Amino acid sequence: EVHLLESVEVQPGGRSLRLSCAASGFSFINHAMTWVRQVPGKGLEWVSSISVSGATTYYSDSVKGRFTISRDNSNNTLYLQMNSLRVEDAATYYCARSPKRVIGYFDFWGQGTVLAVPS
Amino acid sequence: DIQLTQSPTTLSASVGDTVTITCRASQSLGSWLAWYQHRPGKAPKLLIFQASTLGPGVPPRFSGSGSGTVFTLTITSLQPDDLGTYYCQQFNNNWTFGQGTKVQLK
């Protein structure tokens, strides 16, 4: 069974965070992965995607230059390093799997992790 | 950037009704469109991909149609489990979601 579990890790200093998404139940190395967020009361917003090898990454304009997506295929984990956090980054963050190596659409999603950003 | 506009924003219906949600794109998408259901506190769920192909395990009361710039999601015989917010998503040029359509009971 496909399972995606998101979590948050606070980096020393408090203004940077790293999201993790532990994947299980499928061959992680064969699927592109994506982060999507939802600000409270708003809709879904695509944030960042990564190719199966990790060599190619994509970012929305709202996070480009501040967030870094990466993946560890040996440990089946997706990451999102979040620097220079802004109040408007507070949201529920979901990791999502694409059905194949092409990013396209998203066939499985995690339950999401809530990110609070102090003002 | 490609913009997706869903209508209506909110839809009130009764159990057993047939409901239709429309998604309009600012430029042609071909068939590169997906639909998702998002219930509160749950993970979003893929319903339709390639505009009209039913996702794995999705009941056949859900159907999608359209191509180019206008797409529709239809739910026939609405069930209580179908309440939630529905999003279209394009993957023709990067990735964008519509603003969502909330389906609630009348």
Characterise the protein shown here.
The complex is a heterodimer of chains A (119) and B (106). With 119 residues, chain A is mainly beta. Chain A has no helices and ten strands. In chain A, strands 3, 4, 5, 8, 9 and 10 form a six-stranded antiparallel β-sheet that branches. A four-stranded antiparallel β-sheet of chain A has the order 1-2-7-6, with no helix packed on it. In chain A, a hairpin with a 4-residue loop joins β6 and β7. The mean pLDDT of chain A is 94. Chain B is mostly beta strands and 106 residues long. The termini of chain B are far apart. Chain B has no helices and eleven strands.
Question: Top keywords for this entry?
Answer:
heterodimer; A: 119 residues; B: 106 residues; mainly beta; four-stranded antiparallel beta sheet; 51% strand
Layout of helices and strands:
The complex is a heterodimer of chains A (119) and B (106).
Chain A: E1 3-10, E2 17-24, E3 33-38, E4 44-50, E5 57-59, E6 67-72, E7 77-82, E8 91-97, E9 108-109, E10 113-115
Antiparallel strand pairs in A: 1-2, 2-7, 3-4, 3-8, 4-5, 6-7, 8-9, 8-10
Chain B: E1 4-7, E2 10-13, E3 19-25, E4 33-38, E5 45-49, E6 53-54, E7 62-67, E8 70-75, E9 84-90, E10 96-97, E11 101-105
Parallel strand pairs in B: 2-11
Antiparallel strand pairs in B: 1-3, 3-8, 4-5, 4-9, 5-6, 7-8, 9-10, 9-11
Give unreliable regions of chain B as ranges: none
- How much strand of chain B? over 45%
Series of H and E elements of chain B: EEEEEEEEEEE
Please give the number of β-strands of chain B: 11
Envelope shape of chain A? globular
Question: Describe the biggest sheet of chain A?
Answer: 6 strands, antiparallel
Derived from helix and strand composition plus strand pairing, the structural class of chain B reads mainly beta
Please give the most extensive interface between any two protein chains, plus how many residues each contributes.
A-B, 22 and 23 residues
The quaternary state of the protein chains shown equals heterodimer
Q: How big is the Rg of chain A?
A: 13 Å
